[in-house]
Amino acid sequence: MEHGEGDSPPAAEKKGAVEEDDFGYRLFPDRNKKPQSFLVRSLFTFHNRCQLMLRMTLETNPYAQLLLEAMKQSGCTVFNDRHFSCEDCDGCVSGGFDAATSQIVLCQNNIRQQSHMNRVVTHELIHAFDHCRAHVDWFKNVKHLACSEIRAANLSGDCTLMNEIARFKFGLKGHHQTCVRDRAIRSILAVRKISRETAEKAVNEVFDACFNDLEPFGRIPHSKADARRAYRDFQNRDRYNANL
Known about the structure:
GO terms for molecular function: metal ion binding; metalloendopeptidase activity. This is Mitochondrial inner membrane protease ATP23. By secondary structure, the protein is an alpha+beta fold. The chain folds into two domains: 23-135, Zincin-like, CATH 3.30.2010; 137-218, no CATH class. The chain has helices at residues 38-42, 45-60, 62-73, 80-83, 114-133, 142-155, 161-166, 175-191, 196-211, 224-242, and strands spanning 2-3, 84-87, 95-98, 103-107. The chain has a four-stranded mixed beta sheet with strand order 1-3-4-2.
């Protein structure tokens, strides 16, 4: 399970004991429950609100629209009912990508604003895009996980100036890279029972290559306007390639 945008406390190793890694599934307890009927789920406000916000994101958000189009072109069409699941989650986690089922989990009890939903969906769609286009070993290769977390933090809007100000974090030159690095490390520690030193080492070893991998955006979209331009360029690139 790949931890998405959120601020849950990192998991720490226990000294003197080998603890089995649950790959972050403890943060998503509904993954192990039997699915509820539509009638039962429809009675819960959280679930209804989550579904409505998800639909709004998929229909109007340029970050999500570009990623959905890119995945479709890569042979991995995303379907709302199949590939997204609104569930209750533990802690402050906002979402996750379940590589075992190719499903994005949205934490309906922790996502309360449309802007937050937009960011979480984008973050998890980047993981899904990476899963589609590459042979990512999510569970055994921490460098693979680190690379996707770097890309998700870099391209999803997690580290925009306004989001960092809201977190009371300020910086000048190089602050975006610092934010991306920090959030990638936090995400890894949330879902893997490894030391901070190991997580930092993995991030550092792949940072330059993965930070500069801007597919499918072609640029770092620092705002919705950037994302719209990237989406337009992506569509034009597709038309150009079709005419070759």
